[in-house]
Amino acid sequence: MTPDPNLPNSDTVAPPPQPDLLADVHLTRNSSPAAYEGSLTQSTLETSKVIGNGFSRNGAKGTKQTFDRPNSSDGGNQNSKTLILFLAIAIMVVGLLIDNVWIGLSGSLVSLAISLQILWKPLRHLFVEFIPEQERTILLGSVFGSIALLGLLKLSGFFNRLGASLSAIGWDAVGATGEVLGAIGQILIAILAVYIAWRQYIISRDLTIQQNLITQQQTIDSYFQGVSELVLDEEGLLEDWPQERAIAEGRTAAILSSVDAGGKAKIIRFLSRARLLTPLRRDRRLGRAILDGAGGYQEDLTNGIRVIDLGVMLAGANLAKTDLRWTDLSEANLIRGDLSFCDLVKTNLARTILCDTKLCGADLNGTRFFYGKAEDASPRSRLEPPNYRTGKHTGAVVENADFTDAMQLSGEQRYYCCAWGGSKTRDTIPGGCEGIPNKLGR
User: Fold this and answer.
1) Which terminus of the chain has fewer Cβ atoms in its 10 Å neighbourhood, N or C?
2) Residue 314 half-sphere exposure, CB side, CA atoms within 13 Å?
3) Is the CB of residue 265 less than 8 Å from the CB of residue 338?
4) Is the model's pLDDT at 33 over the cut of 60?
5) DSSP string for 87-114
6) Who wins on pLDDT, 336 or 136?
7) CA 39 to CA 52: how far, in whole Å?
8) In the chain, where are the structural domains located?
9) Helical spans, DSSP H, in 21-170
10) CB 232, CB 240: distance < 8 Å
11) Mean of pLDDT over the chain
12) 3-state SS string over 275-291?
């Protein structure tokens, strides 16, 4: 059966329930002819009613679907507008080619109107979608308010008065002023560039210093570990084999020449507290340090052997503003060294060479310059052995040392430095050297 094209689509609407006509006809045929004709007529009427109701429902739904579908006339209008736009552009081009103002102007106006009409809906959609209602109101108010303000200024003659005022200005002077300001701006830009380059240099220098400090600390830590493994055997005893001492001194001399003042102070404190700079009593056969029975090693100032002998490693060294408290620098060579503003509390400087050494502002509280009494003590000698009981030849060599503004210098320290420092040293001793003989004689 061919579907009626005027009927709604049967796929979208379910067909109404159909009465079982065949069953009614079958039952009616078994009856009388009159009853059969009545049943057939009644069934035909019911079927027509059901189909009519289905048509009415489907017609309503079909009308709703037809309303929801996009109007096909919009596509036709869009195509016609595009065609008109092309024609208007062609007319404008023809007007430009033949140099006819009216033809070109008419084509331009028509194309502009059609383009605005085509773009209106998309632009309005984007405007509504991407700009919230509150911002939309502010934007529209600002734009139209600015237009209204410009119109008001124009109608009030503000622009005419402004033009008259500007015409009265000497533009030559303004131009000269502009050139001067431009030159000043270039100078300021150059100054800014120099400042930026200087700041970059400062930052780079600080980063380099920080990296060098980290590298130096790692080097010092490696040195500590190497020396500790070198001087201690498997039983934890301090050995005194010549080769071990030579390697330890070589490592120390190498690292002291490659670190700054703070690094040197750290190494000296480590070696001193580890008793590696102290002359220790040794077993003459085994070379091991002898214990003192109180948890330490016995000292032997006369015949003791140091694990590391600093010797001339610190000659001319810069140790200014470092912490050297409770360190053993006895018999070290600090000639022309710089100990300015050092913390030398309880530091042992006996038999240390301090010629031409700067001790300006150093804290000398309890610093040992000699053994015995100050009146009997004398500086070290190349020929005579030291006598630690009387103090003879146990003192530091302080000739030409600078003690300017040295702090907490005791009476005995002042006496010894004045007696054996020479005339140049005596002039720098805090409190003066009045009444103290110059035993050095020069």
Assistant:
1) N
2) 27
3) no
4) no
5) HHHHHHHHHHHHT-HHHHHHHHHHHHHH
6) 336
7) 20
8) 21-60, 78-131, 218-306, 310-442
9) 21-29, 33-68, 72-98, 101-130, 133-155, 158-167
10) no
11) 81
12) CCCCCECECCCCCCECE
